[in-house]
Each structure stands twice: as structure tokens, then as C-alpha cells.
Amino acid sequence: NELEHLQNEIENSYVNEYSSQWEIDDYNDMIETHNSKLISYNRDATALDSRIDRFNAQVEAHNNYLVQNCSLR
Fold first, then answer.
1. Measured between alpha carbons, how far is 63 from 25 in angstroms, rounded to an integer?
2. Digit-coded pLDDT (tens) for 3-59
3. Which of 13, 58, 60, 71 has most Cβ atoms within 10 angstroms of its Cβ?
């Protein structure tokens, strides 16, 4: 949500060569904040994907054990 909010602010900002310096600075700060948060988000998503894959492998190993070593009643 935070990234989407920043993206909307950036897209709806109107900055051009006639804008004041403080408006340009604010715009640049928004872009820098968005980019750093995006990098952090992508890093966290990659780490989470890795944890999910590890968990799924454990579940699959457990299920395979049950299939091979247990019988239905």
C-alpha cells in the first residue's frame, strides 16, 4: 500500500522545468524513497519465497512419508 501510495503521488505530481526548486527536490525525494522501498520490498519478497519453498518441501516430504509408511483406516 505504501509503495502504491508513493507511486500515485509521483504519477500525479506535476513537475517541469518551470517548477520551483523545492518542488523539484520534493519530487526527487519521493522517487528516491519509492525506489529504496521497492528494493527493500523485493528483497523481502525473495526471502519470503525462499521460506515458502522450504516449507513446501517439508510438507511434501512429510506427505510422502505418510503415503509410504501409513495405511488408511
1. 56
2. 999 999 999 998 998 999 999 999 999 999 999 999 999 999 999 999 999 999 999
3. 13
